[in-house]
Amino acid sequence: TGWDCACTGTDDRMSIFITDEALQKEVIMTAHRLTQLHPSAFRAIPIQSIPRNESGKILYAKLSASQ
After folding, report:
1. In terms of CB atoms within 10 Å, which of 15, 18, 39, 57 comes out highest?
2. Which strands make up the sheet holding 5-9, listed edge to edge?
3. Cα atoms in the 13 Å half-sphere on the side-chain side of 4
4. Is the pTM of this model over 0.90?
5. Could you tell me the mean pLDDT of each successive run of 10 residues in the chain, 67 residues long?
């Protein structure tokens, strides 16, 4: 769908970091539809940008600090 996002999670909840706050509900409902898990299993967290290192890899430790 062209979203700039990254995901982390635990056994009971997935955190989806997105760069467009207006997409929060759409992201959660898409994850629900694709996985058939209840929407409460997902959390969309808007952030300004996805943290990346020099080679473009996502810095997951910095994402976790954003929660």
Report:
1. 18
2. 5-9, 14-18, 42-46
3. 13
4. no
5. 85 93 94 96 94 94 79
